[in-house]
Every structure is written in structure tokens, then in C-alpha cells.
């Protein structure tokens, strides 16, 4: 309970300081208040000691000697006659300007034993008529009131404990994740010892694989409109554990006694208990669902989990919260019975209904089918509905004493937005070169402030400051500019939405290039622990190359004196034209020790190869071109551009494109080219066999490729004491 009090006080102070709003404290009932309300209900039902001022007037139990005596008798019969338990009753009497002590109550009990009358023996007794003597209470009925209010009011207290249990579960999960992942960071050599059958089995069947056989980053198909992303096996276990904890915390401790004096039936009692429990426990997880969705989530640093993992948990915590709210609303609606229409005119109930409705809409509005096809519309609606969900619940519980959790949720959201805005402001909106390359990729060269340090393998959210899309931000990985270290380069694959609009815009410009002001929010993410391994194999596909490249290139620069570590980069692309937009970076690999292999899955496709003509002037003079045998025999001294243009002048287009490919391979002679799709199983086996020690596989690319590599790694962990790990840089958020 101390933890609950501490959190509640902290949130109350936060609300008063930040929001300028004085919060009503929640009411902890405990045994004392349970006894007060039980005896008050029974005594005021059994007798009237003074003419009531209003319908809910209960002052006579304090202001009259007979009322005090009967209350003392009730406490005694309920076995609650002690100073601490009676303290709430004594405090309650202060509201009626009656000051009592425990000794006064002892005297009141003495009066009860002397003067109390048995109303069953009084002819014509009417409990609504005012009397001036104590009445003898039925001990069986006293017990029933005692148990009834323990079940009713005790459920409020238990709900706080169980709600604390729900967030304590996540605290334990975060603690274990932090200890595990930070131990790998702080004590890297330790992981190399965990290569036994137990450790390998744990990683093979729990931490590395997808839930099923392969699919994790690639969506699971189900009637098209109901496609969904499957969590990893470890994520699934955590989610299932949370669902179990939630079920237990919302079902345990709810009891009913036959003949309950508070509720007319077992059904109504259980509905009310369930409504109260689910309404209170929902508040505890409300800050979590906001925190998990935020970009500036301190838990990412603490646990070293990536954003995609927290988005997975965000979805499930949100679903649980919405379901609890729906159960809460439906249960209360039934208990209102005939008074439903009248009760629903109350402001707090109107806002509760608003929150429930918004939450229900979110459950369907957040479907993968809708997110993928209309993301910007989804995002705007999602934020609006989430605001209605949290805001409606805020107003709903404001006067009930449970608003602190909603203060925390609002504070988390405001903090995240403030940091995001701050990042954008300090970065500024520099004019950036935006170039359309190979009709498939946008290259964005952005000058960066000196304080802004790129994170190898990290990402940033980009705002293109154009009237049609300035409010939209999209995540892209980046690399340092090979030519200018004071700028970063982002590569954006042309799809729909913003990138398609820029594609059309650039297509009308000379050279398919222009300057656009760009705002950057970031950097986010972090590098993998690849530097801790004897061999690091980076496998990427398509536009997943920038983040992977930046990490392996940075690792190569930092480990120049460490010849023991093996670094390999494998890039899978569909066509040769895909090399066009990443050519400078590929050339820069010549000065590193990175063993690079490029797989061309459609080598016969020669689309847009002529674009390589435009790259020739960009090639640095320091690059030594390797001539093909045909070129050497002719002793040609001309430039690459002259050769290509000569081929085009002869109208031998097919032969020219083949020559372009040969020239590319010559210029990138430090890279091995392979045609066809890579076999992930074979690659993993070969790399592990070649490694002198531990091996890390780092990947980002097409979801199918990533899932194939994950599966291959999980099936090749038993290698005679060699540690093998898998790190995924592909983050599927939508």
C-alpha cells in the first residue's frame, strides 16, 4: 500500500504543479471505514434517533446519546471495538461538531448494555419513528453487514493492490530485461560462456525464434482485412503472462455472501464488484500504454529493447485497457437498471461513455489492414481517439479519487511531445539536397548541427517542409556523408504518400534534383552489440542497407587495429540499378577491411542502367578503375563515361548495358558479386564454421529475408562452444 500511496502523492503533486489542478485523493477504506459504513447502514436502518435533515442525513449516530450507544453496540458485536478501528467513526463525528474519544465510546457501550431495547418486543415499533433509547441489534445481521461491506468496500482497496500488481509485473519484466541486456554490454565476455545445452535451448526455442516457424516481421495473412503481425516467441510469453496476471488481478478476491444486505442478488453484487475492480485497475496501466508508444521512452535505454518491441507491447496493453473499460461500462450499465437513463445524464458518466466508445473504435481502427493502406489518416484518427479515451476517462474518475494515473499518462505524453518539438527546433530546417535516383530511391543530403552525432544503425524522423506534407514525419535510417562529414544522408524508398509526392515533384526538375528544407527529429535507436563478437555478419536487403552500412562501416573504422574481428557485409538487391543510389558508399568500402558480397536476384534486368552515366563525374580521382580484358587489349585511356557514350553512339544498347555492368564490377572490384537469391541456412552454417569464436548476425531488409535468417540462426546454435546471436534492426511499426 505504501507504493500506491507514494505513486498517488507524486502524481497529485505533478498535477497541481504542472496542470494547476487540485486532485481529490482516493479513499482507502480499510477495516475502520468498512466497520463505520457497515454499522452506520445497519443502525440507521434499525432505528431513527433524530429527525433527519435530508435523505442522506446520518448525523444522529453522532449527535444523540442513543445513536452513539447503538453504534458502540454494533462495533462490539462485529468484534471491531478497538481504538484504531473506531478512529474513522470518531473523525466522522467531527463533521457534525461532535468531539469524541475512545473513552467516550466505552461509556457509550456501557449505556448500550444498560439501556438498549429489543425492538422485536416493542409493540407497533416503526424504525422511521424518532426514539430516544438504544436498540439491540441482531448479531447475525451485524455479521452480514460486516461481511457485505468488507466485500463491497474492501474491493476498492483490493483493486488498488491488484492494480499495483499489474504494473509490478511490467516492472519485473523491465528489471530482468535490463539486467540481462546490460550484463551483455558491461560484461561482454560473459555471454561467450553461455553456450551450453540449457542456454542454447532457451535461445533456440524462446528468445530468438518467431512464434511459429518463421513469420515475425512478415505479417500473417488472414482474410486479407484481418492480417496481423505476430509477436516473437519471447514477446508472446510476456504478453500471455500479462494477460494471465490481468485476469487474476481482476477476478481474485471477489466474493458474495447469501442474503447480502447491500445488493438484492448475487448477480448484481458480482456485476458491481467487477465494474469497480476493472475501472480502478485500468487506470494503473494507462500511463504504460502512452509510454510504450512514445519515441522518447526511457525504458528503451533501460531495457535496450527497440521501439518495435515497445510498440508490440503498446498494442496489447492498449487492448487490455480497452477491454477492461468495456467490461467496466457494461457491468455498471446493468447495475443501473431502471435508473439508467436518468443516471446517464451525469457529466462523469457521459465522459465515461465517451471514453468507452473511443476505445471500442480504436480496437478496429488500429487494424493492420487500415494502418498499412491509410497510415496518415490512421495516425490522425488514432491520436484523436486516444485523446478522447484518456481524456474521457480522466473526467470520469476526476471526482472519484483515481485520476492520478491519468495525470501520469498526460505527463508522459506531454514530455514526449515536448522533447520531439525540442529536437526539431534545435536541429532547424536546413536546405537539403533531395535527389531521385534510379526511379526508386530518394537521396536526401541534410547538413547537421555540430552537436548532432549520428548513431550507427540508428534512425531519424524526417519532415519535408512542403505545404502538402510538412506535418508528416517518417522514420528513415541514415549514414554519414562520405564526402562531407558535416551532413547525413537518408535514403527513402519511393512508395506511396510523401515519397510518391516527392517522386512526382522531382521528376519535373532538371537532373531530378532540388533543394527542400528538411527538419530532422532524432537520432533514435542504438547500435547492436556486434563489436563484442569475433565475427560480425551484416545481412541486408534493398533499402535496408543505410542503417546496416553505417554500423558496419563505423565498426570497421573503430576496429582498424583489431585485425582479429571479422566483418562481413551482404547486400541483396533485385537489379544492378539499385547500386546506383548507394554507389559512393560502396566505393568507400574499398578503404576498409569489410568483406562485402552483393547478391543480384534479377541479373537479367537492365532497367535504368543508363543512369550510371550521370555518376561518372562524381567518381573521385583516387579511385583506380580495373579494366576488363577487352578494354586492356584496346589500350583505351578514355574515361568510363567516354566508353559508355561510345557504346550508345553505336546503338548497341544491349552490349552497352553489359559493358556498364562489367565496368561497375571493375570499379567495385573489392566487392564480390553473386547472382541469385542467397541461401540463409547455408550462409549461417558457413559463417559459423569459419568463425574463430563468437558470431553475430545483424540484419535489416525485406521481412521474409529477415525471418529466414532468424530461423536459420535459431537452428544453428549448437556449434561446439561457439556463441551465435541474432540481432534484428528491421523495426515493423505499422
TrEMBL record:
Q: What class of enzyme is it?
A: oxidoreductase
Top-rank taxon: Eukaryota
Q: Which GO terms describe its biological process?
A: copper ion import; intracellular iron ion homeostasis; iron ion transport
Q: Which GO terms describe its molecular function?
A: ferric-chelate reductase (NADPH) activity
Recorded hits in Gene3D superfamilies, A to Z, give: Nucleotide-binding domain of ferredoxin-NADP reductase (FNR) module
Localization in the cell: Cell membrane
- This protein's record includes keyword Translocase: no
All copies of the FAD-binding FR-type domain together span 411-530
Q: Which GO terms describe its cellular component?
A: plasma membrane
Catalyzed reaction equations: 2 a Fe(II)-siderophore + NADP(+) + H(+) = 2 a Fe(III)-siderophore + NADPH
Signal peptide position in this chain?
1-20
Q: What is this protein called?
A: ferric-chelate reductase (NADPH)
Question: Which protein family is named in the record?
Answer: Belongs to the ferric reductase (FRE) family.
Taking the first listed entry, what is the main subcellular location of this protein, grouped into a coarse class? membrane
Keyword terms: Cell membrane, Electron transport, FAD, Flavoprotein, Glycoprotein, Ion transport, Membrane, Oxidoreductase, Signal, Transmembrane, Transmembrane helix, Transport
Residues passing through the membrane, by range: 160-182, 237-257, 277-295, 316-336, 348-370, 377-397
Pfam families assigned to the protein according to its UniProt record, in alphabetical order: FAD_binding_8 (PF08022), Ferric_reduct (PF01794), NAD_binding_6 (PF08030)
EC number(s) given by UniProt: 1.16.1.9
Taxonomic classification: Eukaryota, Fungi, Dikarya, Ascomycota, Saccharomycotina
Membrane topology qualifier? Multi-pass membrane protein
**Coiled-coil stretches:** none
Supply the PANTHER family for this chain: FERRIC REDUCTASE TRANSMEMBRANE COMPONENT 3-RELATED, FERRIC/CUPRIC REDUCTASE TRANSMEMBRANE COMPONENT
Query: Matching PROSITE patterns, A to Z?
Result: FAD_FR (PS51384)
Amino acid at each position: 500500500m505504501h507504493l500506491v500511496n507514494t505513486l498517488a502523492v507524486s502524481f497529485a503533486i505533478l498535477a497541481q504543479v504542472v496542470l494547476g489542478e487540485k486532485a481529490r485523493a482516493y479513499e482507502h477504506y480499510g477495516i475502520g471505514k468498512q466497520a463505520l459504513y457497515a454499522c452506520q447502514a445497519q443502525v440507521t436502518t434499525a432505528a431513527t434517533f433524530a429527525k433527519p435533515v435530508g435523505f442522506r442525513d446520518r448525523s444522529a449516530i453522532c449527535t444523540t446519546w442513543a445513536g452513539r450507544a447503538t453504534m458502540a453496540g454494533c462495533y462490539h458485536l462485529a468484534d471491531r471495538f478497538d481504538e484504531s478501528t473506531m478512529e474513522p467513526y470518531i473523525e466522522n463525528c467531527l463533521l457534525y461538531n461532535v468531539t469524541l474519544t475512545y473513552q467516550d465510546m466505552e461509556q457509550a457501550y456501557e449505556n448500550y448494555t444498560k439501556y438498549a431495547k429489543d425492538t422485536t418486543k416493542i409493540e407497533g415499533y416503526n424504525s422511521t419513528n424518532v426514539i430516544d433509547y438504544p436498540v439491540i441489534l441482531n448479531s447475525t445481521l451485524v455479521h452480514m453487514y460486516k461481511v457485505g461491506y468488507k466485500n463491497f468496500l474492501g474491493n476498492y482497496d483490493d483493486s488498488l493492490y491488484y492494480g499495483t500488481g499489474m504494473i509490478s509485473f511490467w516492472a519485473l519484466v523491465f528489471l530482468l530485461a535490463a539486467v540481462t541486456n546490460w550484463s551483455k554490454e558491461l560484461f561482454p565476455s560473459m555471454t561467450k560462456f553461455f553456450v551450453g545445452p540449457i542456454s542454447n535451448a532457451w535461445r533456440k526455442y524462446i528468445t530468438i525464434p518467431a512464434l511459429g516457424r518463421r513469420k515475425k516481421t512478415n505479417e500473417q495473412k488472414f482474410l486479407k482485412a484481418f492480417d496481423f503481425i505476430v509477436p516473437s516467441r519471447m514477446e508472446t510469453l510476456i504478453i500471455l503472462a500479462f494477460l494471465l496476471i490481468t485476469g487474476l488481478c481482476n477476478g481474485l478476491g471477489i466474493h458474495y455472501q447469501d442474503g447480502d444486505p447491500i445488493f438484492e442478488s448475487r448477480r448484481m453484487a458480482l456485476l458491481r464488484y467487477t465494474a469497480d475492480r476493472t475501472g480502478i485497475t485500468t487506470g494503473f496501466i494507462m500511463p504504460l500504454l502512452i509510454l510504450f508508444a512514445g519515441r522518447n521512452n526511457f525504458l528503451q535505454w533501460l531495457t535496450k529493447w527497440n521501439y518495435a518491441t515497445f510498440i508490440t507491447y503498446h498494442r496489447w496493453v492498449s487492448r487490455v485497457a480497452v477491454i477492461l473499460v468495456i467490461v467496466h461500462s457494461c457491468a455498471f450499465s446493468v447495475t443501473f437498471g431502471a435508473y439508467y437513463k436518468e443516471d446517464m445524464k451525469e457529466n462523469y458518466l457521459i465522459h465515461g461513455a465517451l471514453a468507452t466508445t473511443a476505445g471500442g473504435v480504436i480496437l478496429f481502427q488500429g487494424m493492420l489492414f487500415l494502418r498499412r493502406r491509410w497510415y496518415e489518416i490512421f495516425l490522425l484518427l488514432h491520436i484523436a481517439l486516444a485523446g478522447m479515451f484518456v481524456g474521457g476517462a480522466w473526467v470520469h474518475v476526476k471526482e472519484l479519487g483515481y485520476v492520478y494515473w491519468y495525470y501520469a499518462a498526460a505527463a508522459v505524453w506531454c514530455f514526449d511531445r515536448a522533447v520531439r518539438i525540442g529536437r526539431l527546433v534545435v536541429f532547424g530546417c536546413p536546405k537539403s539536397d533531395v535527389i531521385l535516383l534510379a526511379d526508386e530511391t530518394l537521396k536526401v543530403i541534410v547538413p547537421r548541427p555540430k552537436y548532432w552525432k549520428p548513431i550507427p544503425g540508428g534512425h531519424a524522423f524526417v519532415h519535408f517542409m512542403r505545404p502538402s506534407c510538412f506535418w508528416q514525419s517518417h522514420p528513415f535510417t541514415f549514414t554519414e556523408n562520405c564526402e562531407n562529414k558535416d551532413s547525413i544522408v537518408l535514403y527513402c524508398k519511393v512508395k506511396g504518400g510523401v515519397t510518391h509526392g516527392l517522386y512526382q515533384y522531382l521528376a519535373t526538375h532538371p537532373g531530378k534534383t532540388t533543394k527542400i528544407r528538411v527538419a530532422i527529429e532524432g537520432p533514435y535507436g542504438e547500435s547492436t552489440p556486434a563489436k563484442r563478437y569475433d565475427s560480425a555478419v551484416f545481412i541486408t536487403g534493398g533499402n535496408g542497407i543505410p542503417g546496416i552500412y553505417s554500423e558496419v562501416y563505423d565498426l570497421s573504422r573503430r576496429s582498424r587495429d583489431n585485425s582479429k574481428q571479422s566483418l562481413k557485409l551482404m547486400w541483396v538487391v533485385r537489379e544492378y540499378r539499385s547500386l546506383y543510389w548507394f554507389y559512393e558508399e560502396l566505393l568507400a568500402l574499398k578503404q576498409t577491411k569489410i568483406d562485402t558480397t552483393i547478391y543480384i536476384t534479377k541479373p537479367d534486368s537492365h532497367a535504368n542502367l543508363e543512369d550510371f552515366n550521370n555518376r561518372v563525374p562524381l567518381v573521385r580521382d583516387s579511385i583506380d578503375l580495373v579494366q576488363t580484358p577487352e578494354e586492356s587489349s584496346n589500350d583505351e585511356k578514355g574515361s568510363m563515361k567516354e566508353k559508355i557514350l561510345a557504346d550508345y553512339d553505336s546503338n548497341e544498347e544491349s552490349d552497352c548495358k553489359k559493358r556498364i555492368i562489367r565496368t561497375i564490377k571493375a570499379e567495385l572490384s573489392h566487392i564480390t558479386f553473386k547472382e541469385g537469391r542467397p541461401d540463409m541456412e547455408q550462409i549461417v552454417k558457413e559463417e559459423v564454421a569459419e568463425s574463430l569464436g563468437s558470431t553475430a548476425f545483424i540484419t535489416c531488409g525485406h521481412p521474409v529475408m529477415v525471418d529466414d535468417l532468424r530461423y536459420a540462426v535459431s537452428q544453428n546454435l549448437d556449434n561446439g562452444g561457439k556463441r551465435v546471436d541474432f540481432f534484428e534492426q528491421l523495426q515493423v511499426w505499422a
